[in-house]
Amino acid sequence: MDLLKKDTYKDEDWRLFIDSSKRSIKGVLLHNTNSYAPIPIAHSTVMKEEYNNVKMLLNKVKYASHKWLICGDLKIISMILGQQSGFTKEPCFLCLWNSRDRANHYVKKDWPERE
Fold it and tell me: Is residue 31 situated within a structural domain?
């Protein structure tokens, strides 16, 4: 962040994007208005998508001092929020009311919970 022009970097103008796969994890800073190019700040081809690795990534990029908004896929966000690891049948409230009834999807208001 020291290499950016003076008054260019403000914590609230950037968000941290975390992406992971089975073999790698990476962190990229994205500007909210896309005025600046994405800045890769963390990358590892050895670390897997596990809670301890995400925790280490956040510590190494000094997330506690910057407090960026975090964006990522559902699995990363679930790990950060402390939801159960592994396969979760319904990881968020939206999945409780997921339906394959395409004709009534936007019409019907009250859906029964899945069993």
Answer: yes
Can you give the CATH number for the domain in which 50 is found? 3.10.20
Backbone angles phi, psi at 63, to 5 degrees: -60, -35
- Using a CB cutoff of 8 Å and minimum separation of 24, what contacts does 51-59 make? 51/79, 51/85, 53/20, 53/25, 54/18, 54/20, 54/25, 54/79, 54/80, 57/18, 57/25, 57/27
Q: Which domain holds residue 65?
A: 11-83
Q: What is the pTM of this model?
A: 0.65
> CB 4: neighbour CB atoms within 10 A?
10
Helix 74-81, helix 51-60: angle, nearest 10: 80
Output the pLDDT for position 15.
Answer: 93
pLDDT reported for residue 28: 92
Residue 81's contacts (CB-CB under 8 Å, 6 or more residues apart) are: none
Mean pLDDT, range 67-93, rounded to an integer:
72
